[in-house]
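Narrative of activities, Objective 1.

The group set out to show that a structural description can be obtained from nothing but a protein's sequence at a throughput compatible with the screening campaign. Below is one input-output pair from the validation batch, recorded exactly as produced.
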Amino acid sequence: MKPDTDLFIYEIRTGDPENLAKFENDPPESFLGQELAASLYGHHLEADFLFLFFERPVELGEFFNRFPQLELRQIHELKYSQWQDGAGSPPFAVGPLLIVPVFGLSAGQEVLGVGSGAQGAEAGRASEAESCQAKASEAEVGGQGESQGEVSDASGAVKGKASDFGDRVVGAGPALLIDPGLAFGFGGHPTTLACLEFLVRLYRPGTTVSVSPETALDLGCGTGILALAAARLGAKEVFGLDHSHLAVDAARLNARANGLGGIVKVKRALAQEYALYPAKLVMANIPLFVLRDLVGLGAFGDREYVIVSGLLPEEGEIFLDLLSKKLKYKILDGQRSDRWISYLLKPTFGDDD
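Output recorded for this entry:
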């Protein structure tokens, strides 16, 4: 989606939480009809609100006649760049990773990247990545067959010219294309950057940890950037979860666009539902109230490594205190910005230090 794309966001109060069920589980065509659904970019549920993202102004009279319990609160008209902070950002490096934000490239424009393995691999056009958007929502899990719209292979090799992105694109390493769509996260947020740096420590040879966990679980995966980074760095199986329709659609699209659909699986679900899903590494860049639930469910116990972020500075000690009541652990690394704190942890067992 280009930075100057128009968005028309319909903010709808649902009232009774039971009213959300249809919008949670049914495809948009079932409650909007084919014509309106064709103009819908996506929908999002938060608390007792339904947000509908359209490409143009629409008439929802018939929709509200069908669901009289709903209330239109406001219509927001804005540009995509106003919705997605950082739209149009240039590529940037985190260790060996080259993060390439893709915000609706024009038809035929090629995407820059430098592969860690297959040099000069066939890639395809960036415009084809957008065509994956519709396909990405068809499968419950993102890896059910690779789409023909890949613009990168699993090694990260993609096509383009350095002049397309400016002087910041230098060096060699696996490229990771991230189109956030309407969801949160192209990689530039301090919490995401901290998690990416922790991943590099785990997977990059020569670092102080460098253990390369083969399986990873991303609880609250957003656009899939951490799950995809783990896969690009060497994880063999990665499972990502998010409750947002927008996030799941974006994560599935990004998995396919990076040629990682066979490694990264994405499912729409609550993090709590998969707290005990087996994986050597668990990542959770999510708010404290969800982390509190996950600690109570034992989500971080049977792991080799844990990456946690999304915490305000004053919440860091709260989380560690909660965790210490459930298991022993070592803090391998911690990062703190003005507003956020992140941890790389290693659970320990018994008297093992």
